[in-house]
Amino acid sequence: MRWLHTGGIFAALSETTAEVALEAMRAAQDAGTIVSYDLNYRPSLWKPRGNTRAVEVNRALAPYVDVMIGNEEDFTAALGFEVPDLDHEITNLDPSAFQAMIGAVLDAFPGIEVVATTLRNAKTAGFNDWGAILHSEGVFHESRLRTDLEIYDRVGGGDGFASGMIWALLEGRSPAEAVEIGAAHGALTMTTPGDTSMVTSSEVMRAVAARGARVVR
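The structure corresponding to this sequence follows.
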């Protein structure tokens, strides 16, 4: 196995699923398998045990993560890291604020090799500004910001980013390429119904090079 991916939704389902995730992540690291973890904080899943428990569980799993993925709420609610100067409505997409937060995450968990986060300003249900940043080997890489991206179905954008980025890294692409590919795939995922990608790799690569997120059929 080259890559194990899991995340906060699975860990939140019960105390035993968190234990299963920990066992799998330990085994993967022992086998030299890359481990990625999408924080994916969901308040409804953690409500029975509280936010404090969410932070405890995710911090216990973080030392076994090679690639950490999340958005601004994930890093705050699931790991306990604040994004500096972020307003309550999350309309400030200044990447430098996220870079400061990512620095704090890496200080706490030095074993993490890649940290990536999506940047979304939800102006309306139908139009979002969308981008992403990725940190690897001491360097921050920022995707192109798609302003006023027209959204058909917002569900799945974060998963689209994660899967696109992971695919790029597995293909041997550079971190700079990976964040662009992940952001483009997330954007395209939100132009189609449901949370499952309906686009091809060639369509993603065209979107990376294009100014918009239109799918060419």
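Strands lie at 3-7, 34-38, 67-70, 114-122, 127-136, 139-142, 146-150.
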